[in-house]
Amino acid sequence: MRRFRTRRAIAATAVALAAVLGAGGWAADTQTAVTGPPPGSAAWTADTALGLHPPDPATSTPARVASFFAGLTPAQQDALAVRHPLVVGNLDGAPVRLRYRANTLALTAERTRELARATAPALTPQDQQAARTRAERYRTLLEGDRQILAFDPRGRGQVAEVFGDLTTAARTAVIVPGSDIDLMTFDRTTDPYGTPAGMARALRQATDGGTAVIAWAGYTTPVGLGVDAATEDLARAGATRLGRLLDGLAVSTRPQAPPTVFCHSYGSVVCGLARPTPAQASALVVLGSPGMGVGSAADLDPGVPLWATTRNGSDWIGDVPNVRLFGLGHGADPTGPGFGARPLPSAGSHGHTGYFAPGTASLAAYAAVALGR
Q: Measured between alpha carbons, how far is 203 from 210 in angstroms, rounded to an integer?
């Protein structure tokens, strides 16, 4: 009888996952996570021209990185940003404003490179168009006074942007997005509250500027509803990168408290597997979650309060089975009564990406949590 029930559970899980992900979903692109140190790290560690010994990004903690930069003059810091913009711009623990400067330089250089590729006769017309699209994306990130905290052109591209002043804000927040977010979709105008940049802008406005918010597209997300979205390989890689980001903020900013981390959809799996400590986060807030990769809130650090947003009736994530079986699924529903999360309202929100929309009860609750109320 027990064997029969197990087989039936497996069959039900497979059918449910197939129904949600779609028959063609399993053929969706499988992503390879961008991991390891920033591009250009080998040249950075070998650079002795300035008489310095830069810390190895592959092995040095953000605290070690912060200590290294603290011992440099402003001129030395700027020289390193000029010589190694992709490293300095992505180095957790480096001074925030120096990272902005480095990423401006890196974006400018990458845009120049893509513009050259756009007219390269050796490339196909399709590749030339892709280069033009990428160059235009870099141009928009260079517009105005945008504060780019991270920029990595590898793969589909990763980026993080700061809204507000990280160096003076009393409260901070981090937005961790879900599937289909990358360099190109980071701040799309369609469905703005489904993007980390749109969520960050809405949260900062809802707190009347009382928080500095990081829109963080700093990990390789799944594309579509396929194997990547149903498994946790990309989330585990993302959790490592999220942990380094939070460690870096702890040593490079001075807010009253660690950031509140908002985790949307697949991003809630990243947050669950990251298991932030009280030194890294003041609270975790999940929304549109398919599960967190853990059995319950008891599997997370008890010093970091967990808030779960009540799912609205039009959020399709409610059709995803809350299982974790043979590497598929992300476990129990964080909004369930036995999970142990504190509930947040969602009145006024619509769909999977509407929780940060102005006027919703969910956004008002997020502002209160971010402000530590």
A: 10
- Is the CB of residue 219 less than 8 Å from the CB of residue 241? yes
Most distant pair of Cα atoms in the chain: their distance = 74
What is the percent of the chain where pLDDT is above 90?
A: 82
Read off the pTM.
Answer: 0.92
Across the range 337-350, mean pLDDT stands at 96
Give the CA distances from residue 64 to residues 69, 121, 176, 249, 321, in Å, rounded to whole numbers and listed in that order.
Answer: 9, 46, 25, 13, 43
Strands of the sheet with 342-344, listed across from one edge: 147-152, 158-163, 211-217, 171-176, 260-264, 283-287, 306-309, 342-344
CA distances in angstroms from 214 to 184, 196, 263, 334, 356, listed in the order given? 17, 8, 12, 24, 15
- Cα dist from 244 to 35, 72, 87, 248, 328, whole Å: 12, 22, 15, 6, 26
Dihedral of CA atoms 237, 238, 243, 247 in degrees, nearest 10, equals 110
Closest Cα partner for 269 from 227, 312, 236? 236
Gap between the Cα atoms of 92 and 182, Å rounded:
19
Residue 28 pLDDT level (bands cut at 50, 70, 90): low
Please tell me the distance from the alpha carbon of residue 153 to that of residue 104, in angstroms, as a whole number.
13
